[in-house]
Design goal:
Chain A: InterPro entries: MetI-like, MetI-like_sf, UgpAE/MalFG_permease. Chain A: It holds the Pfam family BPD_transp_1. Chain A: It is a multi-pass membrane protein. Chain A: Keywords: Cell inner membrane, Cell membrane, Membrane, Transmembrane, Transmembrane helix, Transport. The complex is a heterodimer. By secondary structure, chain A is an all-alpha fold. Chain A has twelve helices and two strands. Chain A has a two-stranded antiparallel sheet. In chain A, helix 9 runs antiparallel to helix 12. Chain A starts with 10 loop residues before the first helix and ends with a helix. By secondary structure, chain B is an all-alpha fold. Chain B has 15 helices and no strands. In chain B, helix 3 packs across helix 14. The chains are: A mainly alpha, B mainly alpha. At the A-B interface, helix 1, helix 3, helix 4, helix 5 and helix 7 of A face helix 1, helix 4, helix 5, helix 6 and helix 7 of B.
């Protein structure tokens, strides 16, 4: 807040009115509605609802389906986060170091940021297509008969690759700007003290990048949870069958296809709590990041 | 030392290959006809169906009701991208201005209400959001497509950070000169935020353009389909098709990514600045 401020009885409210009304109608109301309907069993034909307490939560969380999907979501999130952070860090370190063509590399490595997740998914299904996909032909040479949409593991694999591809640019941009923020004098001092470039990276550069890394970790987990919806929906050709899906996808499936309002809402509430925890961690990290610099 | 340099370039080139090759292949494939692709897989050369395929996708009506073509979808995508970006910037600048520059009762309450939206992505509250928008009669309207997406406070959060960094003296000087609250905002704060507005505009335009789930739910009328939304329709037509229209699918994919990619590449430095600073 500013020390010098305007005082006006109605003007600030007028300024806030558009934002507050949108938040109230399209955020608070639906969020409250999700919490409310998670405690009710809705008649599928719209004839009223019965209060069932925590039944919806117990039913969804204890179902075998939910356990399987939660496990896949966990593995998927781990793979996407780990791979996209790892590859992006490697590329950022190299892009920071090269003298020739640095800006060309930067452009070529970041433009995928603008590609929509479902577009990434659409290209992926063709690359992994059983009839026309070059990747399927390539791995067949090594004896791997890849069947996307049929084999559980193969489908999950394609999803991870597409999701990693889409996420590398964001991580790359942040890591590169983090690296460029490290002062030249620190780097020069380090290179006098230690000749091994590899050791220098792990003992000097990497710890200095850690705040950026933690911050990106949260961003990536949120991405793997929510923003991969488009990739997953397109790779499954909108018909999931027995294929792997994530928890967010299940919320959509149960709510819109299965007409299970209560169950879908209960899952929403579980995810809300999860995101809430992630966001709190994120805010704490941001505070710490500001203290660093 | 020399050898190390070469290794760096090899790694970077491998990275570039991984990022560029899928899209390049998609483009090459989009210049062939469906039968060729069906017979011999994705193509590694430039075909001679480039004009024909893109012309078909842009001008010929597809889908179930044969009402929508690529140009209509392009128009809708532009409306969504621009509408979302402009709407979000205007609304969030006003709100951030009120929060930073005014002292009024319930200020911190308003602040927390707005920032609570950062906690829950739209995907989590998708079903109740849909029902509310439906009950308001906003299905198959641009309003229903754009406004609920604006609810998240990312823009407000960013402008708040920026306004806080504006020197206090500016306001003092403006008040001595007798500028009112609105005049200060329009004549001093907005021109001062120009680069920031540009950066946020690019990020929001790309975000709006790339929306998939929400437009999918909220538009059943094909005349409201965006390019990204059109992908779902392509997949539906594929199921049961003898020879899927791989060529047109890839042409659509290229068309759907072209505008945001061009914007991001051209305004690269602004965009990176906005992205890195807004997420701090």
């Amino acid at each position: 807040m500013k020390k010098v401020q305007f005082r006006n009885a109605w003007f600030p409210y007028l300024l806030l009115l558009p934002q507050l009304s949108i938040v109230a109608i399209f955020f608070l109301w639906p969020a409250a509605e999700a919490v409310r309907s998670s405690f009710y069993l809705e008649d599928p034909f719209g004839f009223g609802a019965t209060f069932v307490g925590f039944d919806n939560f117990v039913d969804t969380i204890t179902s075998t389906d939910y356990g399987r999907i939660a496990r896949f979501t966990g593995i998927f999130t781990f793979c996407v986060t780990f791979l996209s952070l790892g590859i992006a860090l490697l590329l950022a370190v190299k892009a920071d170091k090269v003298i020739h063509g640095a800006s060309t590399y930067k452009t070529l490595l970041m433009w995928v940021y603008a590609v929509a997740p479902p577009v990434a998914g659409l290209i992926a299904i063709l690359l992994f297509d059983q009839h026309v996909g070059p990747i399927v032909k390539l791995v067949a040479l090594f004896g791997w008969k890849m069947q996307i949409g049929v084999n559980y593991f193969d489908t999950g694999f394609a999803m991870v690759i597409a999701a990693v591809w889409k996420q590398i640019p964001v991580n790359f941009i942040f890591f590169l700007s983090g690296l460029q923020g490290i002062s030249k004098s620190v780097q020069e001092a380090a290179s006098i003290d230690c000749r091994s470039g590899f050791r220098r990276f792990w003992t000097v550069t990497f710890p200095l990048l850690a705040p950026t890394g933690f911050f990106l970790l949260i961003i990536n987990i949120t991405y793997a949870f929510f923003d991969t919806f488009g990739i997953i929906d397109v790779i499954l050709k909108t018909e999931p069958g027995n294929n792997p899906v994530t928890l967010v996808y299940k919320v959509y499936l149960d709510g819109f296809r299965g007409n299970d309002l209560g169950g879908s809402s209960a899952q929403s509430v579980v995810l809300m709590i999860l995101v809430f925890i992630l966001t709190v961690i994120q805010f704490r990290l941001i505070e710490r990041r500001i203290h660093y610099t | 030392m020399k050898r190390l340099q070469i290794m760096d370039h090899v790694i970077l080139l491998a990275g570039v290959f991984f990022m560029v090759a899928p899209v390049f292949l998609a483009f090459l494939t989009s210049t062939h006809d469906a039968v060729t692709i069906y017979r011999s897989g994705m193509q590694f050369t430039l075909g001679d169906n480039f004009l024909e395929n893109y012309h078909t996708v842009l001008t010929q009506a597809g889908g179930f009701t044969k009402q929508v073509n690529g140009l209509v979808m392009l128009k809708n995508s532009l409306i969504l991208g621009f509408g979302f970006a402009i709407g979000k910037i205007v609304i969030s600048m006003l709100a951030a201005y009120a929060i930073v520059y005014f002292r009024f009762p319930f200020a911190s309450f308003c602040f927390w209400i707005i920032f609570s939206t950062l906690l829950l992505p739209l995907e989590v509250r998708i079903l109740p959001s849909y029902e509310i928008v439906q009950s308001l009669g906003l299905v198959n309207t641009y309003t229903g497509m754009i406004v609920p997406l604006i609810a998240s406070a990312t823009g407000t959060f960013f402008f708040r950070q920026f306004f806080m960094s504006v020197p206090e003296e500016l306001l003092e000087a403006a008040r001595i000169d007798g500028a009112g609250a609105w005049k200060f905002f329009i004549d001093i704060l907005v021109p001062l935020s120009k680069t920031m507005i540009a950066a946020i505009f690019i990020i929001m335009f790309v975000y709006g353009w790339n929306q998939y789930l929400w437009p999918t739910l909220i538009t059943t009328d094909e005349t409201f389909f965006t390019l990204v939304r059109g992908i779902k329709q392509i997949l539906k037509v594929w199921i049961g098709a003898q020879i899927p229209d791989y060529d047109q699918a890839m042409a659509l994919a290229i068309l759907a990514m072209l505008p945001p990619v061009i914007v991001v590449v051209i305004f690269q430095s602004w965009f990176i600045k906005g992205l890195v600073e807004s997420d701090k």
